[in-house]
Amino acid sequence: MKVDSHSHSKFSPDGHAEIAEMAAKAKELGAGYLAITDHCDKDALQPGNEVPVPWRQLDIDAYYSDYKMVKAGERELYLAFGIEAGYDHRAEKLYREIIDKYPFDVVINSVHFVEGWDVYFPYFFEGKTKDVAYRMYFEKVYESLFADYPYDIVGHIGYCVRNAPYPDPVIHYEDYSDLLEPILRTIIRLGKTLEVNTHHDMCPNIEILKKYYEFGGRKISFGSDAHRGDVLKDYDKVSKTLKEIGFTHYTYFKQHIEEYEPIE
Ligand SMILES: [Zn+2]
Ligand SMILES: [Zn+2]
After folding, report:
1. How large a percentage of the chain has pLDDT more than 90?
2. Rounded distance from Cα 17 to ligand 1 centre (Å)
3. Does residue 50 sit in helix, strand or coil?
4. Main-chain dihedrals φ then ψ at residue 202, nearest 5 degrees
5. Which of 37, 57, 164, 227 could form a disulfide with 169 if both were Cys (CB 3.0 to 4.6 A apart)?
6. pLDDT band at 213, cuts 50/70/90?
7. Which residues are within 8 A (CB) of 1 and not within 5 positions of it... i.e. 6 or more apart?
């Protein structure tokens, strides 16, 4: 069966799909597990963090009640309840309270904000060289690994590349190995799962994934990061790449407990 551990429904500020539609689509494509992980952006509430577009906060009660309704009618698919927590050190207490309060299957911890800006937006890169900007991002990712709340998956390492305005925006591992090696080794040491995100290009890229494997990393999750019902995007292509590297199974979560599915 196919497993997708990262997707957004209409309850996310930038999501468009109904949970029921996403579940139907996932089943049609051969999924046995789909996690809805709507954006929980307590990072965006912290002083100094700027969102250049209107951004609303997730209504978790509304999200949970809709999820429960779809889940109740679901027989074939394991529909998991999750959030993607946007990391900011100052929001740790808020996330701890939220994670305590709801029966999440899975929590993805993702860095979106770096020193005041969501690195998705070109504003972040103004006046910064690629080296300066990417290093700031990787330092924040490293810090996020020690977040003081229970999370399961480290989201989309390399997210800073999406709209980076450089002639060669690719992260070349050797240019940042002094920061990437500690990140990958810490993920392994803490027993966390590294996500492969296919929303844009495969993220992290193949160089980083190969190093993770080389260092002993085996826990990997698939995340389409679908915002428009496009669950399982590039699943077969990415699975083939991961198998070539040596990975044998995807890790996914039910009630924060790891399960494994062979990569086929
Ligand atoms: Zn994200
Ligand atoms: Zn996401």
Report:
1. 97
2. 17
3. strand
4. -55, 130
5. 164
6. very high
7. 30, 31, 32, 33, 261
Name the residue range of residue 162's domain.
2-262
Q: State in Å: Cα 166 to ligand 2 middle.
A: 23
Name the token pair of 153: 């998956």
pLDDT of the residue at 51: 85
Residue 174 tokens read as 């050797």
Other C-beta atoms lying within 10 Å of the C-beta of residue 45:
14
Q: Residue 75 carries which side chain, given as an amino acid letter?
A: R
CATH of the domain at 58: 3.20.20.140
Q: What is the 3-state secondary structure of 208-226? A: HHHHHHHCCCCCEEEECCE
Please, which residues have CB less than 5 A from ligand 2, an ion? 84, 225
Q: Determine the Cα–Cα distance for residues 187 and 193; give it in Å rounded to an integer.
A: 7
Q: How long a stretch of residues is the chain? A: 264
Asked if 172 contacts 180 with a C-beta cutoff of 8 angstroms, the reply is: no
Q: Are strands 31-40 and 193-197 parallel, antiparallel or unpaired?
A: unpaired
Tell me the CB-side half-sphere exposure of residue 33, using CA atoms within 13 A: 23
pTM of the model: 0.98
Q: Which one of the ligands is nearest to 141 CA?
A: 1
Ligand with minimal distance to 120 CA: 1
Q: How many folded domains does the chain comprise? A: 1
Asked whether the CA dihedral 9, 7, 92, 140 is positive or negative, the reply is negative
